[in-house]
Specification:
The chain is α+β, with helices and mostly antiparallel strands. It folds into two domains: 133 residues, no CATH class; 94 residues, no CATH class. Helices cover 56% and strands 13% of the residues. The chain has seven helices and eight strands, in the order H-H-E-E-E-E-E-E-E-E-H-H-H-H-H. A hairpin with a 3-residue loop joins strand 5 and strand 6. The longest helix is centred in the first third of the chain and has 40 residues. The protein starts with a helix and ends in a 5-residue tail after the last helix.
């Protein structure tokens, strides 16, 4: 499999040499690609979620008692209460104005009757407590939930990673199936005479660089259309690989 990885990364013009690889090598490569993108995706999710939990724990330890009762946040405070990095704000008196919203990557403001969710200073969603299910929930219940999540985080993260990995196995196979159809059609148009099985294998080995770039974009959280970029790069690699196959 190492040789296949070397070719797919460094010698894309030679991808056609891999169309006759055995099923075990191909499936191993599918697992590798799924693992690659799972690690990138999980790292981004883990980093953000860990910060959120620590911020939530910190702000809950510094707030007076509160409840979400009758669709209203009830808290005895004269000033808004901020978490250390201003990711969470309790503002029961609606004192935080739009021009003063934090510009952090992710911010949640709990106002008197609604929660405001923001990304990089832009409001992305507002949810009224009436529609959120937050009825008669107290600070103690929130604190117990956050503490439980932190205490069980190892098992929770392991379960989430396993779920992401399994999903990515099927996602990788689906992506390769669609690109395999493209490879099969192009090979017939150009008289390369690939079987669909060979076209599918070609698509698998063509995904290394697109998936690597996808992982980097996910980890960097850049505001770019990751899906179209991945599919576009995959299609380019498949077309290039088919065109470079030499016929006898």
């Amino acid at each position: 499999m190492f040789e296949s990885l070397k070719v797919s990364l460094l010698k894309p013009n030679n991808l056609g040499q891999l169309v006759n690889k055995k099923a075990g090598v191909v499936f191993g490569f599918i697992l590798f690609l799924a693992l690659l993108i799972s690690v990138f995706g999980f790292s981004s999710f883990y980093h953000t979620s860990s910060i959120f939990l620590k911020e939530a724990q910190a702000v809950l330890n510094s707030t007076p008692d509160f409840t979400f009762k009758d669709d209203v946040l009830n808290m005895q405070t004269d000033q808004p209460i901020y978490s250390p990095n201003k990711m969470f704000i309790f503002d029961p008196n609606n004192q935080v104005k739009a021009e003063n919203y934090p510009k952090g990557s992710y911010v949640v403001i709990f106002g008197k009757v609604k929660a405001t969710f923001m990304e990089k200073g832009v409001v992305v969603r507002e949810t009224n407590y009436m529609n959120s299910g937050l009825r008669d929930i107290s600070k103690q219940e929130f604190t117990e939930l956050v503490d439980w999540l932190i205490n069980k985080e190892t098992a929770i993260w392991a379960t989430i990673f396993a779920g992401i990995f399994i999903y990515m196995i099927f996602s990788t196979m689906f992506t390769a199936f669609i690109l395999g159809i493209l490879a099969y059609i192009i090979s017939n148009l150009q008289k390369k005479e690939l079987t669909f099985g060979q076209a599918f294998k070609l698509a698998i080995f063509s995904l290394t660089v697109p998936f690597l770039i996808k992982g980097i974009l996910v980890l960097a959280a850049w505001p770019v259309p990751i899906g179209p970029i991945t599919w576009g790069l995959g299609a380019v690699y498949v077309v290039m690989a088919v065109r470079n196959i030499k016929t006898s």
